[in-house]
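Input.
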Amino acid sequence: MSFAERVLLKKVNFRRNTTLKLFLCIFLIFVLFINILNFNHDDATHVQLINEQDQVPGNIKNLTSNHTQIPPQSALGISDFQDPFTRNFSSIQDFFLTKYQTNITLPLILYYREGDPSGSILTNITYSEDNLLLYNSLLKNELTDNELLQVLQDFNSTSFWHEGNRSNFEYGYIRSLNGTTGEKIDTNRYLVDNLMPVFLILENFENLTINNNTPLRIINTTFNLVNSSQFWNEQEGLFRFYNFSTDYRTDCNLQAVLAMLLINRSAEIDVQIRNRAFYLANLTMFTLINNRWNDTVLGFDMNSTDHAKYLNVNALGIMAMLEMWKLNGTVNSPYYVNATLLYNKLNQSLWSPQHGAYNYSASEDWRVVSDLIDLESNALMMMACLKFFSLTGNITYYNRALELYNTFETSFYDTTSNAYNYSIGTLSNGNKNFNSNLKLCEAYMKALEIYNSSKIYAEYNVSDDIPEFIFEQDILNMTTRYVYESYLLSTYNITNANITYLFKFPNGTLIQSQTAFLSEGDDSHEITFRINETLPIANNYYINIIANTTYFAPASITKYFNVSSGIYHVSTEEIDNLNELYQGQIFDIEFTIKSIRNENLTLIASIEEGVVRNQSKNMYINKSASNVVPFEIEINPNANLGNSTFNINFKKDGVLYLTLRVNITIILALKYSEFSYSKNAYPGGTIDVSMKVFNYLARNPQEFNVSFSGEGIKDISIEEVLAPDDNEIFYYELSVKETTEVESTEIEMSISKGDEIFFTKQFSVTILPKLSLIRDSFPSQVPQGETAWLILIIQNNQKEPENFSLYINGEQVETNLIKLYPGENRIVKEITPSLNPYAFSTKEYNVEIKDSQGNTFVKLYYEVQIILSPVNLLIFYLLPMIVPVGIVLFYKNKEIKSYILKKS
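Output.
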């Protein structure tokens, strides 16, 4: 199925839903009518609302006075009303898109222009203008941007598109085709036909760069064509009626002005093209004003030879002059002045009160010469009235457009065929002209833009955006305006409208509703609402305000307000600095309460049972003053630990005036400090532990368990008791297992109540032997007969002295010490390895030290080399040799001396 067939199928399906839509509309109108009957209708502009006390939701009672602001929003709670302008579009689609289809087989379905009253085709011709205008009028809101681009691409593949020498600008849309054969009939390229892509794209696309800049390229191609000599005559300062025509019709030039101004205002188009487009529009209007505008009788002529005054030409003239006026916006602009004069002239000369529409034409001096009241020119005049209103906000223009609308619906619309007749009046013609119906749909789409541009403004009689009202003292007062803002920000206050106020609690529950009527001549509506004590203290109450009337869309706004009691807590350091509090802690605080009420109050300040014990106190609050309030706080001894909140509520007769919310952290009323322990221990010994424990409960003792566990010790758990508001140092001895072999042990201390552990502490203790050898000393060589000193440094890691025995080579010997005392002990033993002067052997010594239990804890082995002492060398080795030699020498010497004497 082709894209065009899919589009057609979608349009034809509207007919199937007609009955359902009609039923839904009737149902919505019925519901609205019933609701209006239930409202207390008041035509006055001042309405007093009374609260409905039985509608206060229960969960509101827990709200406090903390301020969290929500910015006002709009467009809430509006029903989807059917606008009056497009309600017949589905029927028109069913009529034309089914009966006016041509027989041309193309990717895009084309349509005939002329049919009889029942829709039978009269002329077998299809026009390019109609088939493009369809998508900017009747189907304007039916297609996406991409679908609309597809339509243009499909349309360019039809015989309507002429493709010649591009450099000579020989391209564009021709006028018409045969609807059966597709044969070209009028091959001239008319200006209006070739301006259609400009209106179609620039009035529908927000982004010209989508789909690889296709919309932008189409605009550039179209502009280059109409800017060429094929259409633009620089000498004349006008556009040709069709390519190379010598006819410079006013209506098509006015259309060109509107198209050029659209191009000029589009920021996405190249600036050179935009500037050129403005030049063309400005020069064209200058030429038309100078050559086609009659300053004496007013109005535009059709061309240089036809000076009659046609409604369609002058309606286009009004729109073009108003668009030019937008460029400067001054009320004394010639364009604005002439547009206003022309509008008045048309009303004076061509308006037919009898038919509620304009005659088609008049003579040069504005005498009506024809009774023709046609659909197309009146649709253009409706668009001129709408443009006047959109720019100025002057309701006179909109009212005239609505008069035309009513005429279209009551006199032109054929309820049998569900399409609009070609004309009414004495020259009534019931034929169904496709182009005329599309022009009317285009006017209706312009009216829909205005219809949907309504706004509502609501302001309190105070300066705050979100005011705060005191219950049982203040009255909410609000002024509401239902408006349309023109292009130049001239505001029209919409009247003859219903305004509905929906007062709601912050959770959305309805408090009260009221509907009032904004009468003719009333620029605004004022409403008051009494704030009474049935409205709990809370932020972000809101009012949905909905206004609606027939010819403007429903508009809404949401206004927020807060309700307070006029009693406030003044921030103080004493309250703000509350942080950690112990279970059961009792303390006195003072907080300052400020009153801006106009009466004195006696309030009951109370705290409900919870994290804080139940307490209450009567307090006298002076009006318009600050009041210092003392209060005793007692934290519940059994309060859960961690972050907690408690409220101090101030009430009178059960009505909450203030909630003071206090955030605190509850910590255990038990605390320990000054934890100390023995860093070393030995198997079978003990580890001393001590710590200081505090009980912060002012009125209650505390029972708690202290336990120690770890590898290498005997686990213990001890129940302790501390008196109220007391502290004590607790001592513990942890027994080290005799059999432990670890060098250190990790011990965990915990303080608990029942099954809940509150504090833990891990610490490490080194496990040492009871007795250990630190150092030993014994010489490796000893001279004969000399003493060797055995020195042993023994560490006693116990708390008590230890008996010991020293064994050397299996024999117990005495030492300088009887016992090994805690700490380091120095054992000294004197040993003489040998007295034999001729002994040079190695001596061996096995040394053992046994504790009081006879267990050996030191075992040493030494080897000592016996060496010759100097004394023994002399006495036992040298003297025995020297003495005999000396004796021999002595006697020998004596003998020699005797011999010498004898010889002498």
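The chain has a mean pLDDT of 85.
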